[in-house]
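Why should sequence recovery work at all? Because a backbone constrains its sequence more than one might expect. Tight turns favour small or flexible residues, buried strands favour hydrophobic ones, and helices have their own preferences. The token representation captures these environments compactly. In the example below, the structure is given first.
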């Protein structure tokens, strides 16, 4: 599990400056700035530019107005753009609007296209619109298409409206133009909205077009339309349940609902109980997610917040 680090910030408000020195060393004359945030190290984190100003960025000189945000190492996180303008990107020179964002290493991360434009993608030249995202190594991560197109995917040729890729160029996700019938590790299923793949091309996740029963390592379940997950091997990883059901667990029979997941060997990994439950001699009152390791050892219960 990733640890969350909270970095204290020092707030300083400045009405105006005759010259503003950016972390890059660039000095901006006659800039008007306010609302400064600093990293704990003292490095500037954020300021607001009140008048259109040209600054140097990893993707060329851009005219900015609004918020500038920096990583602690001094590279830009994000810049609000003053107007539509041409920027150098890993996908070529593009006319961009609203904002531009970067990874900590200075590589382009995300921007917004001013109008539909052709870009190079792992699937060939496609016309994209609105947001475009890149991985830290410069590979295209995501684009929304101007119009649905037919592209080759690990699951055959599909009509798609958006595409995403791994940082090594393999297709990771697509948003579908309509409903399709698809062969999955759980048999033929009707899929809508989106489809995801592992790097090896096997299906990792999809959204079902209809309510149905699916065979799982714990039996045959009625599942919700929202999401079914599989491991690279094709073994089922998780489902969302349509209705409460009693299942056998390593700690006895439990009434579960919402979400159930399994280890790759088919052993139960997690399940959610919304009622009071007794597990391994301990009583849990309220909604809990229970978990077991791959050998069936009970790892405990995590209390859940139920929204009403």
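From this structural description, the recovered sequence reads:
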């Amino acid at each position: 599990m990733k640890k969350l680090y909270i970095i204290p910030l020092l707030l300083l408000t400045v009405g105006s400056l005759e010259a503003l020195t950016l972390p890059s060393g660039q000095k901006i004359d006659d800039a008007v700035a306010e609302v400064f945030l600093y990293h704990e190290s003292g490095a500037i984190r954020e300021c607001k530019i009140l008048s259109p100003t040209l600054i140097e960025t990893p993707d060329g000189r851009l005219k900015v107005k609004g918020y500038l945000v920096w990583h602690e190492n001094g590279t830009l996180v994000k810049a609000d753009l003053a107007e539509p303008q041409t920027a150098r990107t890993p996908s070529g020179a593009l006319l961009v609007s609203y904002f531009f964002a970067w990874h900590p290493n200075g590589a382009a991360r995300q921007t917004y296209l001013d109008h539909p434009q052709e870009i190079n993608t792992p699937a060939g030249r496609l016309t994209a619109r609105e947001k475009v995202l890149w991985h830290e190594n410069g590979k295209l991560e995501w684009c929304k298409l101007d119009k649905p197109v037919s592209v080759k995917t690990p699951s055959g040729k599909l009509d798609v409206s958006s595409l995403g890729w791994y940082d090594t160029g393999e297709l990771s996700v697509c948003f579908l133009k309509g409903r399709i019938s698809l062969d999955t590790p759980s048999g033929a299923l009707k899929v809508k909205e989106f489809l995801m793949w592992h790097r090896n091309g096997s299906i990792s996740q999809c959204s079902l077009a209809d309510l149905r029963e699916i065979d799982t390592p714990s039996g045959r379940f009625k599942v919700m339309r929202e999401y079914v997950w599989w491991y690279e091997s094709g073994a089922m990883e998780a489902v969302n349940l349509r209705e409460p059901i009693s299942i056998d667990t390593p700690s006895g029979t439990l009434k579960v609902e919402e979400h159930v997941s399994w280890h790759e060997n088919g052993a139960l990994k997690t399940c959610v109980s919304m009622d009071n439950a007794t597990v391994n001699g301990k009583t849990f009152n309220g909604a809990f997610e229970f978990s077991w390791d791959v050998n069936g050892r009970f790892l405990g219960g995590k209390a859940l917040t139920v929204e009403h």
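A few observations help interpret the result. Residues 1-113 form one domain.
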